[in-house]
């Protein structure tokens, strides 16, 4: 199952293990995936004398990971190959105190402060590119908190469970039968939801204040570029972000980063981190910024957990997020018929009729992909014409199971209380309203600037974007904007990097002139 090249890599990965680990497997003798699971785990274990397997007969298929005989609280009811093979490897490395995803002390303290015994289950797909991040984050939480267990379940192996829980999008995280989280998520986002749901043990209430020369809010291409350029000017810089890489983590392939013919979002995010680390920048990820304050000379970012980041200058590079429809029923049926990622959730709608809302490149590309597995794909565009590139429009129109409706406004997501059943829409030309019966809908209507925390202090435009001048200065002295959160015309990685560099250079110039 594992080729020789991969085994050589695993030998290197596992060579520094300091504890003994057991894959404790329970699987039915006649289970159709028994052989596949045993081959995967036995071949993985063969790459280190610190790893071994123990097999017991039983119902279903699952395994847990033991460290020196102790249960780590991590279980897989899956054959973790494909995208989830990295989750298996990281579970072992994290348990051994290794891995670049290990949190810093502040995040670790928040995890350890979670209240109660919590048993979480994540339903995932082996083809889902967003699922490993959620699985790995919750596995890490289980390792660090003795009262938390986490089970990763391949929905394809347990379809009856997925059907009973009305799982129509992955990853889907449950506490019992209660849905806790749906879709992509960072460690910071998941930890925030667990704190809200289960509570935390009280701390001493004294905030931790961290002082720097310059702060960068956001760790995507713009934020990373800004931090590097500022550090090259000799400034002490902190990047405060939920996730390094930001939105690029969700991009499978990148082919327009000049001088790099092809890379992936995950690779680029890792490269951004390495570049910042090379300049000694304090990378404070897994942080949720709750408040921004400024008394003129001092800017502060207040992060959840009691941290205050303070500096005379701030670059806001918080990026943008997928825009939602904002209509009745959308939130209620998200993950139960309303989806945003065709690559992750498309397989749940194989052979079914779905709609794609949005006629730009992302919407038309999603429709083309979905047409390969769905019985019918209906594209709904608010404007009079599609806005996608002509080559994409031509491809879409050539598909026999795709239909296009323009000048259509979505009014409501309809459902039966447990799942989405259709849309109520209006023809903007005639005013006629009608109901479309659908099995699912994929929302692809662009991005919304992540500016809410700063909107009261900084000038923003009607789209909620932070208004900047040609040198990235905002309406507040000492505060700069860069990337997709601003009113810069085009939202591209290479442009965001340039804007981040420009913002840092403007900040350096203002510092020299004493304009803060």
UniProtKB/TrEMBL annotation:
GO BP field: response to reactive oxygen species
Annotated S-S bridges: 341-344
Binding of NAD(+), residues: 353-367
Signal peptide: none
GO cellular component terms given for this protein: cytosol; protein-containing complex
Subunit relationships: Homodimer.
NCBIfam families xref list: AhpF (TIGR03140)
Descriptive protein name: Alkyl hydroperoxide reductase subunit F
Organism: Rikenella microfusus
């Amino acid at each position: 199952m594992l080729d020789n090249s991969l085994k050589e890599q695993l030998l290197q990965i596992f060579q520094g293990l300091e504890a003994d680990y057991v894959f404790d497997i329970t699987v039915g003798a006649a289970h159709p995936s028994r052989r596949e699971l045993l081959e995967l785990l036995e071949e993985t274990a063969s790459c280190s004398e610190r790893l071994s397997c123990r097999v017991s007969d039983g119902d279903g298929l699952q395994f847990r990971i033991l460290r020196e005989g102790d249960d780590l609280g991590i279980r897989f009811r899956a054959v973790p190959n494909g995208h989830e093979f990295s989750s298996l490897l990281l579970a072992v490395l994290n348990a051994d105190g290794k891995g670049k995803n290990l949190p810093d002390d502040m995040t670790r303290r928040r995890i350890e402060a979670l209240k109660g015994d919590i048993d979480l289950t994540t339903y995932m797909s082996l083809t889902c590119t967003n699922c490993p991040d959620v699985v790995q984050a919750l596995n890490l939480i289980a390792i660090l908190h003795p009262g938390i267990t986490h089970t990763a379940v391949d929905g394809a192996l347990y379809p009856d469970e997925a059907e009973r829980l009305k799982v129509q999008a992955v990853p889907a995280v449950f506490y019992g039968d209660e849905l806790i989280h749906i879709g992509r998520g960072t460690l910071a986002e998941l930890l925030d939801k667990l704190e809200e749901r289960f509570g935390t043990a009280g701390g001493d209430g004294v905030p931790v204040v961290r002082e720097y020369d310059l702060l960068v809010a956001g760790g995507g291409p713009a934020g990373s570029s800004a931090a590097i350029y500022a550090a090259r000017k000799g400034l002490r810089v902190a990047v405060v972000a939920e996730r390094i890489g930001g939105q690029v983590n969700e991009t499978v392939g990148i082919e327009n980063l000049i001088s790099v013919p092809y890379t992936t979002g995950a690779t680029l995010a890792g490269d951004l981190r390495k570049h910042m680390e090379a300049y000694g920048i304090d990378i404070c990820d897994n942080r949720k910024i709750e408040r921004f304050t400024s008394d003129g000379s001092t800017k502060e970012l207040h992060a959840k957990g009691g941290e205050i980041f303070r500096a005379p200058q701030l670059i806001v590079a918080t990026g943008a997020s997928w825009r939602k429809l904002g209509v009745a029923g959308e939130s209620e049926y998200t993950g139960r018929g309303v989806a945003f990622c065709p690559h992750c959730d498309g397989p749940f709608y194989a052979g079914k009729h779905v709609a794609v809302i949005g006629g730009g490149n992302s919407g038309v590309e999603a429709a083309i992909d979905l047409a390969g597995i769905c019985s019918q794909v209906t594209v709904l565009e608010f404007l009079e014409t599609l806005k996608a590139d002509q080559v994409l429009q031509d491809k879409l129109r050539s598909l026999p199971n795709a239909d296009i409706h323009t000048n259509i406004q979505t009014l409501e997501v309809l459902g039966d209380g447990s799942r989405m059943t259709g849309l109520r829409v209006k023809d903007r030309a005639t005013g006629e309203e009608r109901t479309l019966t659908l099995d699912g809908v994929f929302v692809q209507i662009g991005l919304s600037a992540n500016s809410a925390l700063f909107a009261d202090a900084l000038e923003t435009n009607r789209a909620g974007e932070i208004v900047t001048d040609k040198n990235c200065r905002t309406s507040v002295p000492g505060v700069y904007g860069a990337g997709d959160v601003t009113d810069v015309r085009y939202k591209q990685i290479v442009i965001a990097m340039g804007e981040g560099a420009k913002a840092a250079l403007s900040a350096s110039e203002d510092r020299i002139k004493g304009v803060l």
